[in-house]
């Protein structure tokens, strides 16, 4: 109701990826047998249709991409996530600035575990937990990307960490973890929206801001501030106990994921320096095709395919530009 009119106002159309030319035989194989035919099946189809194998591979790739959401759908998804991240981060900052443990993390452990659970803290936790549960379920119906396994692990760890810290009344330090990790997410979604709207300079600027905030908060502030209090200050004040070991193990696992994603961000930044533009997200779900394939007719016969908006290659239906971060 909100994002779609905004997208239309920005001239974002519901253009999907390149459409595969109609073919009853290939469609039957795609829908009833397999979406990823092996070499033996490809050779059989090649003889049956009098098409070369490469053309059949391209048809299956286009047919798979055909089921991917349009740019308009992606914009709406990014705008929804941007709205949530912005709201929850703003709420977290407004809540934490009134708490003593934001300014002195040792307060996270004073009088532990007999610390009161306030209404604001409870709301903050339930809001975050419900969002991560929604991500956990939606990833099975959403497009499976290259980092599906890592994202699944991330959502699982986050849900368990939020629940575990709530049950063990470690909510004070938990709010620091949540707010810190929410700080960069809104910038990433804003950069995606700028990319979909073809605001290339704004996309580049937002991506740089996202990269700086992400790496600073997750590789700098998180280990030096949050992990310092969970590993050392808590040991000094309350001492180690069974839940302490589990909690810190989960936080270290989250930090390992932060290092992995920081590596991907730096990788994109290095490509941007070498190519003069921000490359696409390495997790892109639009299957790549070479320029040669896209210019080549689909078969020995004159089966020609049109490109969408004049684009081809790894971004599929996304317009090429200086910033392309296909989520």
Automatic annotation (TrEMBL):
It comes from the Eukaryota. Pathway: Sphingolipid metabolism; Lipid metabolism; sphingolipid metabolism. It catalyses: sphinganine + octadecanoyl-CoA = N-(octadecanoyl)-sphinganine + CoA + H(+). Residues 304-327 have a biased composition (Low complexity). It is a multi-pass membrane protein. Its main location: endoplasmic reticulum. Keywords: DNA-binding, Endoplasmic reticulum, Homeobox, Lipid biosynthesis, Lipid metabolism, Membrane, Nucleus, Transferase, Transmembrane, Transmembrane helix. One of its GO terms (biological process) is ceramide biosynthetic process. Residues 281-327 are annotated as: Disordered. InterPro entries: HD, Homeodomain-like_sf, Lag1/Lac1-like, TLC-dom. The keyword Membrane applies. One of its GO terms (molecular function) is DNA binding. This is Ceramide synthase 6. The lineage of its organism: Eukaryota, Metazoa, Chordata, Craniata, Vertebrata.
């Amino acid at each position: 109701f909100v994002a779609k009119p905004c997208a239309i106002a920005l001239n974002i159309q519901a253009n999907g990826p390149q459409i595969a030319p109609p073919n009853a035989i290939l469609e039957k194989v795609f829908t009833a047998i397999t979406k990823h035919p092996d070499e033996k099946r490809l050779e059989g189809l090649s003889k049956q249709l009098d098409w070369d194998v490469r053309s059949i591979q391209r048809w299956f790739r286009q047919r798979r991409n055909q089921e991917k959401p349009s740019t308009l759908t992606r914009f709406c998804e990014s705008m929804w996530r941007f709205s949530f991240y912005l709201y929850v981060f703003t709420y977290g900052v407004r809540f934490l600035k009134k708490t003593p443990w934001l300014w002195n993390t040792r307060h996270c452990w004073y009088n532990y575990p007999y610390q009161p659970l306030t209404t604001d803290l409870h709301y903050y936790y339930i809001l975050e937990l419900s969002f991560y549960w929604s991500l956990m379920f939606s990833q099975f119906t959403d497009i499976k990307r290259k980092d599906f396994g890592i994202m699944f692990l991330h959502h699982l760890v986050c849900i368990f960490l939020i629940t575990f810290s709530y049950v063990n009344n470690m909510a004070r330090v938990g709010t620091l973890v949540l707010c810190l990790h929410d700080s960069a997410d809104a910038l990433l979604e804003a950069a995606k929206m700028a990319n979909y709207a073809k605001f290339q300079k704004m996309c580049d600027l937002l991506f740089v801001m996202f990269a700086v905030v992400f790496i600073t908060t997750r590789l700098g502030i998180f280990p030096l501030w949050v992990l310092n209090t969970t590993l050392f200050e808590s040991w000094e004040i309350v001492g180690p106990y069974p839940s302490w070991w589990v909690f810190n193990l989960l936080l270290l696992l989250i930090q390992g994921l932060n290092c992995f994603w920081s590596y991907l961000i730096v990788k994109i930044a290095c490509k941007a320096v070498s190519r003069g533009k921000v490359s696409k997200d390495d997790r892109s779900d639009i299957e790549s095709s070479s320029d040669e394939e896209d210019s080549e007719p689909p078969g020995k016969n004159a089966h020609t395919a049109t490109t969408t908006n004049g684009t081809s290659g790894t971004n599929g239906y996304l317009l090429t530009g200086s910033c392309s971060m296909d989520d």
